[in-house]
Amino acid sequence: MKIGVPKEIKNNENRVGMTPAGVFELVKNGHTVYVQSTAGEGSGFFDDDYLQVGAIILDTIEGVYLKSDMIVKVKEPVDQEYNLIQENQLVFTYFHFASSETLTKAMITSKAICIAYETVEDADGTLPLLTPMSEVAGRMAIQQGAKYLEKPIKGRGVLLGGVPGVPPGRVLILGAGTVGIQAAKMAAGLGAHVTILDINMKRLRHVNDIMPSHVVTEFSNEYNIRRHIKTHDLIVGGVLIPGAKAPSLITRDMLKEMHPGTVIVDVAVDQGGCIETTKATTHENPTYIIDDVVHYCVANMPGAVPYTSTVALTNVTLPYVLKLANMGWEKACQTDKSLQKGLNIVKGTIVYEGIAEAFGWEVSCS
């Protein structure tokens, strides 16, 4: 199979869809890999690194799309790429369709086969291709939140770890999934007081078992959320419904109940956000303020640490890329039920229910 790795062109996205190590494995299996020139530089991988493992370097993104049967990316195609995607071309990337009707309609029009990393799901409900980026984003949420709590950038002026004689900052985490646990781990490591909310008691028991005593768990409901937002300095949104739009757990009216300078980091922004006032931002302009509450809603947080993120991503995507390349998408999805759940749009037809529900459409097949 001919596999293309284009350069990401989303704002400040420095990751790349495949490391040289990944390309090496594909070439070893008899496949041709086209890599756009300088595609890996943001992650610390250069054209010579790819050439040494057998990749073919192409100068333009148009050339990569034109020559490839399968496109392996990191982020969803942006509008400049819509017309480059060909009918029956396989596109394997993070799509997050439920957050963008424009993207969804463009991929329907393209009649491509769209397999989304974020909906590939194992039998136990885990999301193997989303997990490493959720781990990165959860940890980064605390780094960024700690920074934006500083007064010069309109935060409350709170040091999360506190100092002797001064209590530590308070962190509220919505969701005890991968993002929430990783955020709690980082915040606890800094010495912050952490409250983590979820509706899944099994997850809360797990958090209770593995976290230190200054990480406390509570059941998530509106009453508890309204109570805690009044006293917490940093709020992390880590709620996920695979493939569907995230629910709004904090509404606009709740912002007035927070201290001025409270920071919200909504990691769920890719799926529309779990804060009503969330709107996607970029690393170039990461924050905005509503009712004196600082919002950090960067839609590609792991893109700020591209070496770590690219290696972590290729570690988990490569087995699936190899399966798709070796078997073709139809046979691969028939034999691998986890991969089958990654199918979102096939030749103009939505096949993933969460996308249709997000826009009030019907699913044509399953």
From TrEMBL:
Keyword Oxidoreductase belongs to the record: yes
Entries under PROSITE patterns matching the protein: ALADH_PNT_1, ALADH_PNT_2
Start and end residues of each Alanine dehydrogenase/pyridine nucleotide transhydrogenase NAD(H)-binding domain: 149-297
Listed GO MF terms: alanine dehydrogenase activity
EC number: 1.4.1.1
Keywords of this entry: NAD, Oxidoreductase
Keyword NAD: yes
InterPro entries named among the record's database cross-references: Ala_DH (IPR008141), Ala_DH/PNT_CS2 (IPR008143), AlaDH/PNT_CS1 (IPR008142), AlaDH/PNT_N (IPR007886), AlaDH/PNT_NAD(H)-bd (IPR007698), NAD(P)-bd_dom_sf (IPR036291)
Catalytic function, reaction form: L-alanine + NAD(+) + H2O = pyruvate + NH4(+) + NADH + H(+)
Span of domain Alanine dehydrogenase/pyridine nucleotide transhydrogenase N-terminal: 4-137
First-tier enzyme category under EC: oxidoreductase
Family: Belongs to the AlaDH/PNT family.
UniProt-recorded name of the protein: Alanine dehydrogenase
Organism: Galbibacter pacificus
Organism ancestry: Bacteria, Pseudomonadati, Bacteroidota, Flavobacteriia, Flavobacteriales
